[in-house]
UniProtKB/TrEMBL annotation:
<feature type="domain" description="VOC">
    <location>
        <begin position="3"/>
        <end position="123"/>
    </location>
</feature>
<dbReference type="Pfam" id="PF00903">
    <property type="entry name" value="Glyoxalase"/>
</dbReference>
<dbReference type="InterPro" id="IPR029068">
    <property type="entry name" value="Glyas_Bleomycin-R_OHBP_Dase"/>
</dbReference>
<dbReference type="InterPro" id="IPR037523">
    <property type="entry name" value="VOC_core"/>
</dbReference>
<protein>
    <submittedName>
        <fullName>VOC family protein</fullName>
    </submittedName>
</protein>
<dbReference type="InterPro" id="IPR004360">
    <property type="entry name" value="Glyas_Fos-R_dOase_dom"/>
</dbReference>
Amino acid sequence: MTGMSYPVRPKLPVPSADAAIAWYVRVFDAKPLQRHTAGKQVVHAEIEVFGGVVALKDGDEFDPAPDGRGVLVEADTADPDRYQQAALDAGAISVFPVADQDYGARGGRIRDPFGHEWLLQTPMPRS
């Protein structure tokens, strides 16, 4: 475990944890925290991203990687436009573009190359 304590954090099974970590580092400025293997299989890894921790692992018979849509992760960031564009440039698919939303945030959603969706958003000032 890391030195930080996060009582709840998602664990994303992916086809390749190493490829996903590299993508999140490049696109979302994530910071790798730990990586554990059993043989060649990544059984647990953690990254710090957008001020929180996300765990990852190689999909297996107990926790398969998504075949289609995976987990939806909400991520607060000061610059959702920048991160959505970076994700699209790196092979993500736009679910909906960044825009001012009726619920009081500016945000958009992408599906990453590993099947998981990210709602990238920032609160808007109240008028």
